[in-house]
Design brief:
about 270 residues, four-stranded mixed β-sheet, 13 strands
Amino acid sequence: MMVRRMGARILSGLNGNVAIPKQTGAGTHTWISTEGGAATETNQTFGQVTLAPKTLGAFTEMTRQLLLQSDPSVEQIVRQDLAMVLALAIDLAAINGSGASGQPEGVLQTTGIGDVAGGTNGLAPTWANIVNIWKEVAIDNADFGATGFMVNATTVGKLATTEKASGTAQFIVPDLPGPDGMTSIAGQRAGVSNQVPSNLTKGSGTDLSAIVYGNWADLLIGEWGTLDLLVDPYTSSASGTVRVSAFQSVDTAVRRAESFSAMQDAITV
């Protein structure tokens, strides 16, 4: 899960629905102009971020002949594949989950995050766009903590060949990602995940990508229990088929919308 690598806060071992407090308004200060003067009373305001379990699942079946003829490690391969499928699904939900049809609500669907619009039908991303994505977080005093960009591979390919200014040979992405899927943008960490959408639309523009920046510690991922794997030799016992099912109950939420911003109409192809 790239969001976890970027610093998303994992809340594990949860029971029941959870309400996480968040500050929605800061206190104010008073300059005292006279000796013996008093400061004006001020109060912070608080709200809540709620998490409720949302379950995803996947299963696969192994035939009797496959089990007979394959190495015993085939079951481990199946288990690992199902675990990967669910991890990618959680990654996608954390980034762009709709918040409907049983899905968590992702960063890009959260009301109030910073928005950097490219153009009516999208725009090829420029250095100015990247700076503005960062600025949307910085002007809200949220540019601290586990900060960084998240982009997809198509966007990396575009930014790695886009100069900051013409004729400088200084590219927005200076190096391609390493084996850990990390590179850098504007001196900040940049995680590369193809769960960052590349199929967005705007006007007549299609296949547009998102570029996300934020303090990823303000992305909460709640876990109820752990990854459940169930081996079922009975459902299809007439054919000797064994079914392996995987389930996980999670939810995601942004604790502070001001901690994130995004350009969601980047032309990268």
